[in-house]
Specification:
Length: 310
């Protein structure tokens, strides 16, 4: 085995060993997420997050692919499924990159900007994990507040409070919709299910949408109902008229301004860093105080589960 190949394989192993826990990789074309779960002297073990499938990536296959890339490029769209993970891992090295949807050898490793197929632990979290983490951060913030009165909170604290409330609501609603679809497949009409925290029932709501104009007008004519009774101003057409004429908006609309707060950004890295800090502080604690804190956290999680279920 040549020294060049050995150096490259060592670089692959070292880069994978240096990946932060929780880091996710993505295959270039099929966009399948996977993680490196073990590194040995001659292979990598990976596990796909979308299926739980485990696969071995062998050292000699990395070397074959790397040799192929010398002086050539590999179009991402033409990568066979079995080769995609190898290509992803190679892009972790400074000497390989992606240009115009092709895997290429980078002449100047110092110019490498990082793999586009690398997903940080903060971004790789699933929706349930994000909800759990945001709920923990929200609970931590609530515990540090001297008062729940938003009128007296400092602006920075109130901003963080609003962002966390918004994030918890967003992720909870997304999961609620997923749970709803699963429950609908298990509930018959009018049937109820009882859980530990409450009861649900399958109900039906009707949403009406007018049929096409010809059908509606035909039905009206058949019953002797004047068409004028159902005709009205079409807002879309009115907006077009406002755009192409000098008609004033206030001449045809009652306008009322309403102020609201819009969340325009979330510092996921900062939230993740705070979570890691909380976890490390808890792990460092020893003695009765540590046990009391862990009991408090278990109680907190139980109360959060109950609140979210409600």
């Amino acid at each position: 085995m040549s020294g060049r190949h050995g150096d490259r394989w060592n670089a692959v192993r070292d880069r994978c060993l240096d990946l932060e826990p929780g880091t996710e990789l993505v295959t270039p074309f099929s966009d399948r997420p996977f993680r490196v779960v073990d590194v040995t002297s001659d292979r990598l073990e990976i596990r796909f997050d979308d299926s739980g499938e485990e696969r071995l990536l062998h050292r000699d296959q990395f070397e074959t692919l790397a040799d192929r890339l010398e002086g050539h490029s590999l179009p991402v769209a033409k990568l066979p499924p079995g080769v995609e993970p190898y290509a992803t891992v190679l892009t972790l090295l400074g000497e390989y990159g992606v240009e115009d949807d092709e895997i290429v050898s980078v002449p100047d490793p110092e110019m490498d900007g990082g793999s586009p197929y690398l997903v940080s632990p903060a971004e790789a979290r699933t929706s349930p994990e994000r909800l759990h983490d945001d709920a923990v951060l929200l609970a931590d913030l609530l515990d540090t507040l001297d008062t729940p009165d938003t009128e007296v909170l400092e602006t920075d604290t109130l901003t963080d409070f609003y962002v966390l409330l918004s994030d918890v609501q967003h992720e909870a609603d997304r999961l609620r919709q997923t749970a709803r679809e699963s429950l609908l497949s298990r509930l018959g009409p009018g049937q109820e299910l009882h859980g530990r925290y409450g009861t649900i029932r399958r109900t039906t709501r009707e949403r009406r949408q007018p049929r096409d104009d010809a059908t509606v007008f035909g039905a009206l004519d058949e019953h002797g109902i004047p068409r004028e009774w159902v005709l009205g101003v079409n807002r879309d057409k009115l907006d077009v008229v406002l755009t192409v004429t000098d008609l004033g908006e206030d001449e045809v609309y009652d306008i009322e301004a309403q102020d609201y707060i819009q969340k325009t950004g979330v510092e996921e890295a900062e939230k993740y860093s705070r979570l890691q800090g909380l976890a490390e502080r808890i792990e460092e604690l020893e003695g009765p105080e540590a046990e009391d804190l862990r009991d408090d956290l278990l109680d907190l999680e139980a109360r959060l589960d109950e609140a979210l279920s409600a």
